[in-house]
Amino acid sequence: MTADTTDTTDSTARTHDDGSASGRQRQSFWVARGLVPEAGPRRTLALASFVRQVGNGLYLISAAIFFTRSVGLSVTQVGLGMGVAAVVGLLAGVPIGQVADRCGPRGTYLVTLSAEALAMASLVLVHAFWLFVVVVALSQVAAASSEAARGPLIRGFAGPDPVRYRSYLRAIGNLAGGTSAIAAGVVVQLDTRAAYLALVLGNALSFAVSAAVVSRLPSLPPVKAPPGTSRWIALRDTPFVVVTVLDGIMSIQGYVLVFALPLWIVDQSHAPRWLVGASAVLNTGLVVLLQVKASRGIDSPSAAARAMLRSGVAFLIAMALIATTAGMPGWLAAALIAVGVVVHTVGELWTSAATFELNFSLAPAHAQGQYSGLFGLGPGLASAGAPSVLGLLCITWGAPGWLVMGAVFVVVGLAMPAVVGWAERTRLRYGVLAEP
Description:
disordered N terminus
């Protein structure tokens, strides 16, 4: 009897060990291929980022429809309210970034994520225009604050290969956006108030879950500022401000495929309408698959500046391809637009990697939150102005407007190496020594 019991126990132990070894092998497989970060803070932060991006995607895709179809606001009211909220949100990044730098980023990020959850949940109470403006403005303040507080966390946990990790975060962000699109599509198809409310509350829940995940991260102590450092150092850093402005102009490219191209396909070309969705899927898939690879070698400010130059050329080529499709047969227009989407996505991959690198390598460690808040002003202003700019150039002006917009991207790309070089030469003044 004793021998049988021992054999059974040994067999069970061996089975359990084998299972554990198998689990470790499977984890090693995903980690080795860069699909999952190694266990620890990087994986935890990546999970929190994915969950939060799902919530952001749900809101961005469905907000206008929710406010018009469920709340009963007019399109004009929604546009005005969201524009005001976006401007208010931009003002929060730098001061909240300063709080994260001085008080620690993890605690600050937890507070901002909780604020996002509360603001989103409050949307179910909106029944009048004034209340809509207040709640949406609060949500934008919380969102901008979260981005500023997240910067020092990414810098602190990025590890020995920060470029690769930042690119990984961007790739899973796009994957989260695809997940959001599926959920939002189901809700829009149902088109009921209950479905819209479930979407809004699900969005709020995503921020709460993200906060719960972030709470598992170890604390990062604030980095002590050198004696005599200006309190608002980022705002006094003129070269970085100029880099931010150029990056903001280049950020308009992010709205070409989601705003200008769908309108062009439907109203100005003979390409099939299903190409609108197919283009979005193609872009998202390429970003998820290639963002990490595209970031290789973009590991210094000068390399990032060169990547921006390549991006500008890629955007011009892509927009020229799309511009030529007016009046073409449907099959030829679809083929050229598809090629244009691929070329544009290549430029987008380079731009994203370069943006991450400039945001972190030009900022002193003791003020990363403040610099991240300032750097977020560029994309924030782009999101506010891109629809008007692209609507005028690409839709109203037609083919010549696509070429003008592409030329703007090339000019920004040409200017970036000189401006970044200026910024590099002044880093000692702002507390950046030999940091990556």
